[in-house]
Protein: Elongation factor 2
Organism: Saccharolobus caldissimus
Amino acid sequence: MPRYKTVEQVLSLMKDRTRVRNIGIIAHVDHGKTTTSDTLLAAAGIISPKVAGEALALDYLNVEQQRGITVKAANISLYHEVEGKGYVINLIDTPGHVDFSGRVTRSLRVLDGSIVVVDAVEGIMTQTETVLRQSLEERVRPILFINKVDRLVKELKLSPQEMLNRLLDIIRQFNNLIDMYGEPEFKEKWMINPQAGNVIFGSAKDKWGFSLPMAQKKGINMKHVIDAYTSSDKSKVEELASQVPIHEALLDAAIKFVPNPIEAQKYRIPKIWKGSLDSEVAKAMLNADPNGPIVFMITDMKVDPHAGLVATGRVFSGTLRAGEELWLVNAKTSQRVLQVSLYMGPTRELAEEIPAGNIAAVLGLDRARSGETALSVAFKDVQGSFERLHYISEPVVTIA
Ligand code: GDP
């Protein structure tokens, strides 16, 4: 299986929107969000930066070492194959964790699926509840990753039955939250079920993980996990990581359970777009139409010391190209796109165009701020913008 893809190959996949998934990782602090995204960045099929006209295979940890920069938890487009078919998974950085006010992370808005990481020992915590609730309110479909399963063996020394009970308990609590916060039309479908494959058990630190269907296919079970951690032979854990690599488990599940942008935008746009759904702009978004007016929702503005302000966001409709004049709804001004690129971890790679349903990084929109909606200038009079984000406060803890 070719691990490395060129920018051109990825861009051509991005045009087939059934092959695109937009996901993010969310978690209670310390449950393993950073370790999980690092593992994905390091192990998944990374797109190769072009060096002197040649596609050069690099993994991100190498890039990090070579350039002395921290790549961790960046936006990145990953390549992954399932049953011989290639997919582009845009892994979007969600800022650390909910901050003290429990603020909705704007980045959730551009996701269609979330990987919710839960520490097997700590179980569901306050911030797990907050981030899961935010995900459901944005109609972002959750997948559960029960991380740090090694701790159940090494620290708690649980028997297989006790382990099972604890894992089932976490799953039950997770489904209770989906039941509580999910909208009626989604919650039944979105409840997780280990047999179906949308629960991953594993250890991000030790790089192994599996869903039940994957474990069955590969002849692995919890007994192997217990053996690996109770054995004096340290290579047993590495063996597990090569038999059931965590990135494979997570990315397979994302491809299977997270809707593609065409499916997702049909039910997400009515929820997040404030304005008539009959306008040409809204219809184009409902269909993630690459030929419709451009609607680019900017979730992040960052300074690149060499290039200036970079606007990152999701193209909900149309196709972004350099030279397009866009109307910034909040700034009430228009600006021209100077350059369009896609994210490959530490680097932005120039792209001729980024079609609807994908994540783009854009130069030229320096009047924009996070949360801005940029529209094709011909549609500046459309009545509508993205709904303001709700802020969910975490329960206030009072000390008696
Ligand atoms: P974040 O705050 O959610 O981003 O969590 P981190 O990824 O920074 O992880 C928090 C701590 O948990 C770090 O010390 C990690 O090394 C550790 N950790 C992450 N994954 C695992 C795991 O699978 N098993 C164990 N035992 N520790 C882990």
